[in-house]
């Protein structure tokens, strides 16, 4: 996706293809130019500053996208001006991106406040990185609709479990990893455009991280000889098609699942595919199309998340 400060389309060809197939391309072209900014408005700046956690998407040394989560006492993110967000990062044990951030890294950020069902996106580029965190230059800032966000109160506790441990996860999901995916009502997905983070990248190329939600068990797991394949119904949304449009151009994705009761985090990497067959989608109530992800590798962090979640719905 590109910013609105040019005469170019605010969407790349992958997003445009899906918008065209859905019959909304002309409408979204106009809406995108109005809603996608090259800076953060003041309400978005204040929103990030009040959050106890943020979702991030980035690339490892092999250009594999991963989604991860950072947390801290509200104020661990600060926006000194509309074009920058400074983050004091505390990497979780096992975070596959912990050693990957440097100046020039493409980054996607999703601020989400579950109890108000509010979420804002900010995609940009790391301009400074050191042991205490880094600064991000804003490239794209826009809000998202509150659909499929399960209301929960979240607070930072300051420390992971004293029994925190990290273990590798293979292509075949088993045990705790399989239970987390099969029971989930929420996960996050990182995707990228082909030239994300490269010098001279197109204005539409970058890394994105987005939210996926549904009823508990909405992620369906099938076992194959090569590994687990996840099928996720794609429900009607905002028609931006950031994630699915990226996958049409570059299929590698990173998934993040969290067990909010145990403080466990599951990082998964795989290859995504957009299934546009209406008959296949018809097997899943409410699905407009399907996202399939073939798992390749991952990490399970047990008790690593220093957040407390009220799992009861907030009225």
Automatic annotation (TrEMBL):
Family matches, as InterPro entries: Split_barrel_FMN-bd (IPR012349)
Gene3D superfamilies in the cross-refs: Electron Transport, Fmn-binding Protein, Chain A (2.30.110.10)
Protein name: Flavin-nucleotide-binding protein
Species in which this protein is naturally found: Aquabacterium soli
Lineage: Bacteria, Pseudomonadati, Pseudomonadota, Betaproteobacteria, Burkholderiales
